[in-house]
Design goal:
Elements (H helix, E strand, L loop, with lengths): L8 H12 L2 H14 L8 H7 L7 H13 L4 E4 L2 E2 L4 H13 L7 E7 L6 E8 L9 E8 L13
Parallel strand pairs: 1-4, 3-5
Antiparallel strand pairs: 1-2, 4-5
Length: 158
């Protein structure tokens, strides 16, 4: 995200993602996965999130978000602290697919970290207790952000 999506849309997209993978919405996602295989190697994140209408509303920012999802194919990934053989994009797809098809799907928490720490990788961890007031365990997917020094999508000339 970062340089490809205006700052104001990043929390909005994060809210869309996080609210889609918890409580009743998570039950619905499990059914969508069962029926339609929304997350599989046959579909890109662009296609899956586009289908679920998870994206900024502004055209330039929507395009920037989808470009960002494609750029995740050039990042590495780790799962529970161990390096993955998959790229970041494919690891997100596989982690969501595995979780939704597990029979005991955990809620998913999407978050961001600077791409420098750790160096440009998608981090997936399971069993995180991210809410201090809850005992729920989450699958956490943290994706690297692009530096703020890049021109924001909303600031580009059209």
């Amino acid at each position: 995200m970062g340089g490809l999506v205006a700052d104001g849309y990043v929390p909005h997209v994060q809210e869309q993602l996080n609210s889609r993978f918890i409580d009743k919405a998570l039950d619905e996602m499990v059914q969508f996965q069962k029926e339609f295989k929304v997350f599989s190697s046959q579909h890109t994140l662009l296609m899956s999130f586009g289908l679920l209408n998870i994206a900024p509303v502004g055209e330039a920012d929507r395009d920037g978000f989808f470009k960002y999802l494609t750029l995740l194919k050039k990042t590495g990934a780790s799962v529970d602290g161990e390096a993955s053989r998959r790229n970041g994009h494919d690891q997100i797809v596989a982690s969501l697919q595995d979780n939704l098809e597990s029979g005991r799907a955990m809620p998913v928490h999407f978050t961001w970290h600077p791409r420098e720490h750790p160096k440009g990788i998608v981090q997936v961890t399971s069993g995180d207790r991210i809410l201090s007031f809850s005992s729920k365990a989450f699958l956490t997917i943290s994706v690297p952000t692009i530096g703020a020094s890049r021109t924001k999508a909303g600031k580009r000339k059209k």
